Amino acid sequence: MAVVQVKSKEAKARAAMAGGKGKKKKWSKGKSREKLNNAVLFDKKTYDKLMSDVPKMKTVTVSTVSERLKIGGSLARKAILKMEADGIVRRVLHHNRQWIFTRATH
Question: pTM for this one?
């Protein structure tokens, strides 16, 4: 037969308090993306870069123009439509959500 160790009430209370669950679970804050600070209007430098870089791009989309020139998506859409009207880029696909253009080859 096993020998049972007799504990006082105080010893039992201390053992119960000491054991417990351990540390409480800490929830992570989650991964957060850095906030973009894209321009909403063209300045001279950005407009010149648009007119020089975009005609050389093989695939022109709103997201690529926005990302490269650090401009907002709305401004990129307007710029691409103007370039299409001027004959600088040619439309490949014009879906509701994704516009794909390519450089115009004459």
Answer: 0.67
